[in-house]
Amino acid sequence: MITMENVCKSYKVAKRNAGFKAACKAFFHREYEIINALSDVSFTINDGEMVGYIGPNGAGKSSTIKILSGILTPDSGTVLVDGRIPYQDRINHVSNIGVVFGQRSQLWWDVPVIDSFELLRDIYSIPGNLYKNNVEELTELLGLQELLRSPARQLSLGQRMRCEIAASLIHSPKILFLDEPTIGLDAVSKIAVREFIKKQNELHGTTVILTTHDMQDIEALSKRIILVGKGKILLDGSLEEIKKGNANIDETVAELYRSFEI
Fold first, then answer.
1. Correct CATH for 2-96+173-260 of 3.40.1360.10, 3.40.50.300, 3.30.1310.10, 1.10.3570.10
2. Cα separation of 14 and 31, whole Å?
3. Could you report the average pLDDT of every consecutive run of 10 residues in the chain (262 residues)?
């Protein structure tokens, strides 16, 4: 189970005007602005749920994922993931989670993908039999047979993302955080990734939190959505509850954004 209660997170960002004079002034007297990324955020996600965590750019989605994965520490509030505080017990915590950031890679760029998997096996201390079974299962389900011997830099974006998802699941995590996992993918690759995530949830009961701007991903994978905007939870409910008439998911979400002025 995942719980966040009254979580707040802010950043101090340096600001200055353009030009050499402003740069010199900032060198001696730097001005800062406080950005409130999360303000009193609370929600609970049960084991095995697949939840779409949506909102516009700058809403606080990635900050939430980074707090839940233990990368960031909140300013205040309580966070528990599977009974642990992520940022206080990171070593044990990361053994139970998988994270995919669509714009960042966990594969080593110049070595074959299978070598990256081998290194992850050592990092997570995965038993030999479990590692072998997981690689075989992920290779079959994601169609990686022809990709494992290629360096990551030689893969297309769609091929690399399939390998990234496999890398995040190589240690059999209970929870999977997906931050824009289908960004830049073609239609065929998107469908393959969606089908795999659904199978992973059905076969292993993996809890999935998905953040994306692709509402087709949300509709295909999530029965529940949490809408965040300006650092606050604005809505938490099912797709059926928020849909109006025959409106498609994109129209529905666009109307939500307008109604909440985000």
1. 3.40.50.300
2. 6
3. 94 81 76 88 95 90 92 94 91 90 82 94 92 92 90 88 90 91 80 87 92 88 91 88 74 83 82
